[in-house]
Design brief:
alpha/beta, 3-stranded parallel beta sheet, 63% helix, PEPCASE_His_AS
Length: 713
């Protein structure tokens, strides 16, 4: 392991040896800090050992296989503790180098955009003046050259500024782009995976070091602009970098205990807390800017064009620690995080929206809203009426903040009822029952601002977040292996003695006929008292918990139930029957509040997937469930929801697995089978007038990379 680390280190250094001066300087700085920390923590002997290993490995600065014998001899002489420390040192070096490289790439892109913009602006000025450059180019030539450079700098593959100019050059009709944007519905799903071993603590240290590198750039650029060579601020930042690296060295890289499911939930929520909640509004703004630059008449997609799901806390397949209690707490933790985000944003808005009635008018609907708030929460009015007497936006935000606080307190009680917290009284006036109610109040403020010619970007961002995340943050996906449902139905049928032949001995056709019959009756199948084994009770209680979650959080909290290892029609109908018993499917109206998603994983299952789905689509009961599913809300509630939250009827979601198929036949063969299965499934869905959504469960080292596999090849 140490030899592999050493060879990789030499290759890493040589990769960067041809880079520009700034990158080399940053690498030299980080390497010197790394050596300084190791010298202080472990002594000069370790530093000398690392230098010796690197020198033997590549005496000429070139990677070669010749010195391996010498390296092996040196490593074999090391004591175990010395080898461990050397391995840790190289691992730390790799991570520091990666941070510097990523920082350099971001900085380089920013500088290129800035330089190109300045050149294009200068060329425009010369063009307007009709001046010539020192190389004889006239202004028009300079302008053309600069604009070409500007276009090239923006045309980095995978960016919005690359995409829309490409569509323009390809003469894609704007109407077609508009239709695609209106239908855009991207869903990204988080999973907890055993290969994720990096601690949350280490990720925070990586972020702090990256932040310090950015601050160091700013400090050095500021002083160079003043004609100075160094600054106390830069020296202070370098000292902080040294402290961070030293603390990192003293920190365990791996968990010293087995993380619980709720620990995994916390790790997942970290990405929403630190990155996604703030980054997504910016992403939407960039999309709109790039779109309007090339297609000004096209409307941008709705704010919920990209939404998130999570298996963490809901995926039961092979994990007995995911209980109904864990799932309930997960939903509460998610809601608590987004409510805290909203509270912080409302506090910021209170500072920003200081408009006074002395200098600005407000509409009657806002005044009416404030009067209703005064009646509902007189304590807030008594406390703040004098301070905000002439500042209606701040007064309105105070009421909003108090409702959010009450909603959060109630949620905390639901998450931890054993702590004896006082439950907030459930009245419509002092809590929000959904994110839709919260967003409606924000929209009221936005309309009033627009009517007086004002716009507030912070308010726009908060509305975007309210539409994107609601009060659930992300959808919880449930997953269970198909045999668990079969065993549950088998146990219940055997206890009730309602089949002449044991369920497990029925043929597939007989199972389907019996399941269809049970799905068409309103008679309950499962008794209230369940004298069953633990697995059967847990499977039934999972469905009941799903129903309970939808009642408390809304259907958007959990709509997807994934059946892993699906290999027959009965696997899907068994889940639909269990959903009926929990009140998630109504046979009288053919409406359902969940989406059953078969997962085809192995190569054999992928080949049979079209046959299984064709048989399901031909069942009148199943087609009726798809046609009537999800679209069950009252008309008045439908008007409050953004379009993507109304689940389209006649939609079938299917998940295709990459990991197991890779194990079956290898990467290339499995991807080819997945490709063929997708085409066949699409052909089957079209005659039934069904929309098909494919959920790609990509696994393996290639699937978890940062780019499509085509770039890998």
């Amino acid at each position: 392991m140490l030899l592999e680390s050493l060879q990789s280190t030499v290759e890493e250094v040589n990769i960067f040896s041809t880079s520009d001066l700034f990158l080399r300087q940053r690498l030299e700085l980080v390497e010197s800090l790394w050596e300084s920390v190791l010298k202080a923590e472990c002594g000069l002997e370790l530093v000398d050992l690392l230098k010796k290993l690197r020198k033997i490995s590549s005496p000429e600065g070139q990677v070669t296989d010749q010195p391996k014998t010498s390296i092996n001899e040196l490593i074999e002489e090391l004591e175990l503790n010395e080898a461990i420390r050397a391995t840790r040192a190289f691992a730390l070096y790799f991570q520091l180098i990666n941070i510097v490289e990523q920082h350099y790439e971001q900085r380089d892109q920013q500088l290129n955009r800035r330089s190109t913009y300045q050149e294009s602006e200068k060329a425009r000025e010369n063009y307007q003046k009709g001046e010539k450059s020192t190389n004889g180019l006239v202004g028009a030539d300079l302008l053309e050259k600069a604009l070409v450079g500007e276009t090239k700098s923006q045309e980095k593959g995978g960016t919005f500024h690359w995409l829309f100019p490409q569509l323009k050059r390809l003469n894609v009709p704007p109407q077609q782009i508009q239709r695609l944007l209106e239908q855009l519905d991207i869903r990204l799903v988080f999973t907890a995976h055993p290969t994720e071993i990096v601690r949350h603590t280490i990720r925070l240290k990586q972020r702090r070091i990256a932040t310090l590198l950015r601050r160091l750039d700013q400090a050095e650029e500021a002083f160079r602009g003043m004609g100075l060579s160094s600054s106390w601020e830069a020296e202070s930042i370098i000292e902080q970098l040294n402290e961070e690296i030293r603390l990192w060295w003293r920190t365990d890289e791996l968990h010293q205990f087995k993380p619980s499911v709720l620990d995994e939930v916390d790790y997942t929520l970290h990405y929403f807390d630190e990155v996604l909640c703030s980054a997504l509004p910016q992403l939407s703004q960039r999309l709109q800017q790039a779109l309007q630059a090339k297609f000004p008449r096209i409307k941008p997609p709705h704010n919920t064009f990209c939404r998130f799901g999570s298996w963490v806390g809901g995926d039961r397949d092979g994990n007995p620690f995911v209980t109904t209690d864990v799932t309930w707490r997960t939903a509460c933790y998610q809601r608590n995080l987004i409510l805290e985000k909203y509270l912080a944003a409302v506090e910021d808005l209170t500072e920003i929206l200081s408009s006074s009635l002395h200098w600005s008018n407000v509409s009657q609907d806002l005044l009416d809203s404030l009067e209703r708030d005064r009646v509902a929460m007189p304590e807030i009015y008594d406390q703040l009426a004098i301070r905000y007497r002439q500042e209606p936006y701040r007064l309105k935000l105070a009421y909003i903040q108090k409702r959010l606080e009450h909603t959060r307190d109630r949620n905390n009680h639901l998450a931890n009822p054993e702590q004896g917290q006082v439950l907030v009284e459930e009245t419509p006036e002092n809590i929000y029952h959904s994110g839709v109610e919260f967003e409606a109040e924000l929209q009221l403020i936005k309309r009033n601002l627009e009517e007086t010619g004002l716009k507030c970007q912070a308010l726009e961002n908060l509305i975007f977040q309210a539409q994107m995340f609601g009060f659930t943050l992300t959808q919880l996906d449930f997953r269970q292996e198909s045999s668990r449902h079969s065993e549950t139905i088998q146990t219940i049928a055997s206890y009730l003695n309602i089949l002449p032949t044991p369920y497990e001995e029925l043929s597939e056709a007989e199972k389907v006929n019996w399941l269809v019959g049970e799905l068409q009756t309103r008679r309950p199948l499962i008794p209230m008292e369940m004298p069953f084994d633990e697995k059967t009770i847990e499977t039934v209680e999972t469905m009941r918990m799903l129903r309970h979650l939808q009642q408390e959080f809304g259907i958007e909290i959990c709509q997807t139930y994934i059946i892993s290892m699906t290999n027959d029609v009965s696997d899907v109908l068994e889940v639909l029957l269990l959903a009926k018993e929990a009140g998630l499917y109504d046979p009288g109206t053919s409406t359902t509040t969940i989406r059953i998603v078969p997962l085809f994983e192995t190569v054999d299952d992928l080949k049979r997937a079209p046959e299984i789905m064709e048989a399901l689509f031909k069942l009148p009961l199943y087609r009726a469930a798809l046609a009537g599913g999800y679209d069950y809300l009252d008309e008045d509630k439908k008007e409050q929801l953004p379009p993507p939250q109304l689940q389209p009827a006649n939609l079938q979601e299917i998940m295709v697995g990459y990991s197991d198929s890779n194990k079956d036949s290898g990467f290339l063969s499995s991807n080819w089978e997945i490709h063929k299965a997708q085409k066949s499934l699409q052909k089957i869905a079209e005659p039934h007038n069904l929309a098909l959504r494919l959920f790609h469960g990509r696994g393996g080292s290639v699937g978890r990379g940062e780019a499509p596999p085509t770039l890998l090849f």
